[in-house]
Design a protein that fits this description.
The complex is a heterodimer. By secondary structure, chain A is an alpha/beta fold. In chain A, helix 1 runs parallel beside helix 5. Chain A is built from 19 helices and nine strands. In chain A, the strands form two sheets. In chain A, strands 6-5-9-7-8 form a five-stranded mixed β-sheet. In chain A, strands 3-2-1-4 form a four-stranded parallel β-sheet, sandwiched between helices. Chain B has two domains: 7-81, Roll (Ubiquitin-like (UB roll)); 87-238, Alpha-Beta Plaits, CATH 3.30.70. Chain B is built from six helices and ten strands. The chains are: A alpha/beta, B alpha+beta. At the A-B interface, helix 13, helix 14 and helix 15 of A face helix 2 of B. Bound molecules: flavin mononucleotide. Flavin mononucleotide binds at residues 30-34, 36, 58, 60-62, 146-147, 149-151, 184-186, 189, 291, 365-367 of chain A.
């Protein structure tokens, strides 16, 4: 749709401050996970006094089963490039990187073609559209570590260092790539920029809820009839997504829970299906928006097993830098293994909760801080399943293979 | 003339203190005789914020903040020893003890170990989680030094001192999560290292018995930490 017309119009008609004002009016919040207001991030970088600034696109998409960003990169890479260039103009940056996972070869190929085409047409590179504004974009390929999607780890990785997060502050907006002020945004966030510039922030802000504006793409997966990517307005209910768009649960089985927000999101039970999907509501339910993963589970899922599965993922994707995340996730995982094999004790449950609280509160980055969500949310909504495993050595969903207590003691 | 450094006033526990704006809460607490536990932090090296033992509470903030990187702010109220942080610190220590094989009685650093000392100071009476007892190796290939992964807590003091002070960058980290471990060069035996200068700084800053000199038996490895502030003061004086 009107390739690069938003960029050209911005360069011709708008001052950088006006771009940021439109972003702020749109109410767009970062689509990569934390939901930070994009306009505010940009204005922080714009205000920073520094001879060099960067724009970085987070295309690491590490959540297993998520392919929202991939679909944008493969089908419309120009829109992301255009969004980045508009961001660069707004904050005064002249160089940018797209950090894209190497497991997306088609996305890499199409991005390379799109960058080369844009450079040829004077839409990227030096003196864009004949103006004084220049912006060079290059790709950096990620090795597929989940933690490298965390912004400070990603920047370290671009710099050629080990992809490990560092404490914030300073935030990348203040001290990012090579210690320069840096905007780092998700693919979907940048893809939202050109339409906002074309139609105005107020137009965008009309979609969605009071505090979560616009549309969001979700990867609907698991036990639903229609799986795949969906783009919906913020504020739509979980029921509408799962029962209407997703076409309900196959085989006449019962809905049990939906896990939102990727491997460190929480599991939401049937009684909250009418909650609107926005940042606040999901947090209130003990889950997160994350980057938009949505896995539907029916009655055949064991919630302790589900929690164990996600904890195993976070344990093996922890970078190992901070002690609570490195050791805590392993201890929690091993405890869940004991519960699911029938050797858990009632005391384990208390320790499990304490460890989850510890890891959530004291970990260095968002990986550790969110890793306990699947456990805490299933303890909150499905505690009886944990108790059945521990007290009568049985798995209500008949997923876990439990030893009987007698077997274990011999 | 360098630009003037501003002074900030803040409160730590019940004490009103003043600090230069570029100081951290940990530094200023120390200056005023307030002890905040820390393990990965060591004077003279960059802050890593990995052990999470120096977490403190700041009034008005629901989150905990690592004192080693927390910059002072005007009017800030810091609590270094609330019940909440004391409990978390104890649990983090327990996690560290449970992670590998810390058997003090047969350790070269018994009695001179920062981890052991902290356990005593923070009243850690037992380890509530199961010990993981991983099978880990010992590298004794170097002429003078030994690396015992069983005692390593991944504080990365060795990594930093080798990079920041010695300038050799022999040490680094390999592997993720619970499988992370310190390595020499590209995970080679210490004795075969082309970059190690044999200076021994890593051994002296190591908080536990993970790095030791050959020829010491249990309890005999007493480390010489004084050199690090010394070196940094000398460097600064030269500037
Ligand atoms: C463990 C972890 C993994 C993350 N992975 C991604 C990712 O794959 N893609 C992404 O855009 N953001 C990811 N994030 C969020 C980024 O840190 C950061 O918030 C985001 O890139 C900011 O862009 P936004 O404001 O447009 O969302 C991750 C965060 C954490 C803690």
């Amino acid at each position: 749709m009107g390739g690069y017309s938003a960029l050209l119009r911005v360069l011709e008609e708008m001052r950088p401050m006006e771009v940021i004002e439109q972003m702020a009016r749109s109410g767009l919040r970062g689509r990569g996970g934390a939901g930070f207001p994009t306009g505010l991030k940009w204005s922080t970088v714009a205000k920073a006094v520094h001879p060099k600034k960067y724009v970085v696109c987070n295309a690491d998409e590490g959540d297993p089963g998520a392919f929202m960003d991939r679909s944008v990169l493969e089908s419309d890479p120009r829109r992301v490039l255009e969004g980045m260039a508009i961001g660069a103009y707004a904050v005064g940056a002249d160089e940018g990187y797209i950090y894209v996972r190497a497991e997306y070869p088609l996305a890499v190929k199409r991005l390379r073609i799109a960058i080369a085409q844009a450079e040829r047409m004077g839409l990227l590179g030096k003196n864009i559209g004949g103006t004084r504004f220049s912006f060079h974009v290059d790709l950096r390929l990620g090795g597929g570590a989940f933690v490298c999607g965390e912004e400070t780890a990603l920047l370290a990785s671009i710099e050629g260092k080990r992809g490990a997060p560092r404490p914030r502050p300073p935030f990348p907006a203040e001290s990012g790539l090579y210690e320069c002020p840096t905007i780092i945004n998700n693919v979907e966030t940048f893809a939202n920029v050109p339409p906002i510039m074309r139609k105005g922030g107020d137009w965008y802000a009309r979609i969605g809820t009071a505090k979560s504006k616009g549309t969001k793409v979700f990867a609907l997966a698991g036990c639903v009839n229609n799986t795949g990517l969906i783009e919906v307005p913020m504020g739509i209910t979980l029921r509408e997504i799962i029962m209407e768009i997703g076409g309900g649960i196959p085989g006449g089985r019962q809905f049990k829970a939906v896990q939102t927000g990727g491997p460190s999101g929480g599991c939401i039970p049937a009684e909250h299906l009418d909650m609107p999907v926005d940042y606040q509501s999901l947090t209130q339910l003990g889950s997160i928006m994350g980057s938009g993963g949505m896995i539907v589970m029916d009655e055949s899922s064991c919630m302790v097993d589900v929690a164990k599965y996600f904890m195993e993922f976070c344990m093996s994707e922890s970078c190992g830098k901070c002690a609570p995340c490195r050791v805590g996730t392993a201890q929690i995982y091993e405890m869940l293994c004991r519960i699911t094999n029938g050797t858990g004790t009632p005391d384990d449950l208390k320790l499990l909760e304490e460890l989850c609280d510890l890891v959530r509160t004291t970990s260095l980055c968002g990986l550790g801080q969110n890793a306990p969500n699947p456990v805490l949310s299933t303890l909150r909504y499905f505690r009886h399943e944990y108790l059945t495993h521990i007290e009568v050595q049985a798995c209500p969903a008949q997923v876990c293979k439990l030893h009987s207590a007698a077997e274990v003691t011999v | 003339m360098t630009s003037p450094v501003r002074v900030k006033t803040l409160r730590i526990n019940d004490l009103d203190v003043s600090a230069r704006e570029d100081e951290t809460v940990l530094e200023i607490a120390r200056e005023n005789g307030i002890w905040i536990p820390s393990l990965c932090e060591i004077e003279g090296l960059s802050a890593l914020s990995a052990c999470r033992l120096c977490l403190v509470e700041v009034k008005g903030s629901p989150r905990l903040h690592p004192a080693c990187v927390l910059k002072v702010e005007e009017g800030m109220e810091v609590f270094t020893n609330s019940e909440r942080v004391a409990k978390y610190r104890r649990m983090i220590l327990e996690l560290m003890f449970s992670e590998r094989n810390h058997i003090c009685s047969v350790c070269v650093s018994n009695g001179h170990c920062d981890l052991q000392a902290l356990a005593q100071m923070l009243d850690m009476t037992h380890v509530e989680m199961p010990y993981r007892n991983p099978a880990l190796s010992v590298d004794a290939s170097h002429q003078r030094f030994i690396l015992d992964h069983n005692r390593c807590i991944l504080c990365q003091r060795c990594v930093r001192v080798c990079d920041e002070i010695e300038g050799a960058h022999t040490w680094d980290l390999m592997g993720r999560g619970i499988n992370a471990r310190v390595i020499i060069d590209l995970a080679e035996p210490w004795g075969a290292s082309q970059t190690c200068t044999g200076c021994g700084k890593c051994v002296q800053v190591c908080p536990t018995g993970a790095l030791s000199e050959k020829g010491v038996s249990s309890g005999e490895m007493i480390k010489k930490r004084q050199f690090l502030p010394y070196l940094t003061t000398m460097r600064e004086a030269r500037r």
